[in-house]
Amino acid sequence: MQALTQQIPEGSRKEVMAYLEPFMLNEMSEYLKPVEEMWQPADFLPDASRDTFFNEIRDLQESAQELSYDLVAVLIGDTITEEALPTYESWLTMVENVNKNEQGGWMKWVRAWTAEENRHGDLLNKYLYLSGRVNMREMEISTQYLLQDGIDIGTGNDPYRNFIYTSFQELATNVSHRRVAGLAKKDGDRLLAKMCGVIASDEARHAKAYMSFISKAMEVDSSEVMVAFEDMMRKKIVMPAHLLRESGEPQGEAFAHFSDAAQRLGVYTAVDYVDILKELLREWKVESVKELNEAGERARDYLVRLPDRLLRLADRMKMPEKTFRFKWIHD
Ligand SMILES: [Fe+2]
Ligand SMILES: [Fe+2]
Question: According to the UniProt entry, where is the signal peptide (predicted)?
């Protein structure tokens, strides 16, 4: 398709996606790395075929002993979130108005992105298993529940809402993995710090890709993108593990305790939420977008005022104090 220089008439997601698809295909190598150049979980974990294996495990367990209770809880929550990848992949393939041809830009992107993401849960799960601090059966029950429960994140099958959500989420996971890396280092677990660091940098690349999809869509369908952005922010961006639970407990309860722990540690806070929103507003130059229809203008006005409003709310939020005892963690 020819490059579009003018706005596409309203309601033509299909044309916009057809316009985006060659871009996805061509630019993919900018945001994803060739398989054999990538790090793999085995690069970080003790090698069971080596004589030193048991010594390496002992070292790993000694460092893991130093991690604070909240940090282990957050790490488990992060790991389960990563391991619910089949939910995210199937959700991405359900997006409407895109060409579902396996050789097309969208499906190729989804599969390559999934392939990169799959390493995250794999690495963290193996680390947690070896650490000796985790009740693996309880953690595995939570993972199975989360996969079964799925997600309810308010995007529907709309590509714009989907890319806005994924842009936000990839930035959020970048922040949280990066912070966990910092805390692990402080607690003396250098291996875990390195692992979370490399995962965080994957997330940052992914964020750039999804943000670029929206930047492109903004060029040709700004009002509709703006309205979709407003809608997602009004609904609030919920985390993909928002239905997380422990065995015998109601849906979503473990998630609340997990996010309290993240807030307490400063791994992911209400202020981070606002910072991510600000980054998206900057990236998509929301304030200076022109040629909007009435709904688009209203959406833009709402969005540019939102960070200040949210910061006032964040100020008034109370820090969750009590540490919750998870079934996931051995006492
Ligand atoms: Fe990830
Ligand atoms: Fe990610």
Answer: none
Query: Average pLDDT for residues 141-146, to the nearest whole number?
Result: 98
Indicate whether this model's pTM tops 0.85: yes
183 close to 175: Cβ distance less than 8 angstroms:
no
Ligand nearest to the CA of 117: 1
298 CA from centroid of ligand 2 (Å): 31
Separation CA 162–CA 219 (nearest Å)? 17
For 92-116, the pLDDT digits (tens) are 999 999 999 999 999 999 999 999 9
User: Catalytic residue at 152?
Assistant: no
pLDDT tens digits for range 295-325: 999 999 999 999 999 999 998 888 888 889 9
Cα–Cα distance for residue pair 100/121, rounded to 1 Å: 26
Question: Three-class SS of residue 330?
Answer: coil
Distance from residue 52's CA to the centre of ligand 1 (Å) = 30
155 is catalytic: no
Phi (first) and psi of residue 325, to 5 degrees:
-95, 115
CA–CA distance, 101 with 110 (Å, rounded to integer)? 12
| 184 within 8 A of 66, measured Cβ to Cβ | no
What pLDDT, on the 0 to 100 scale, is given for residue 331?
78
Q: Which ligand is nearest to the CA of 207?
A: 2
> What gap in Å lies between CA 33 and CA 241, rounded to an integer?
26
φ, ψ for residue 328 (rounded to 5)?
A: -65, -25
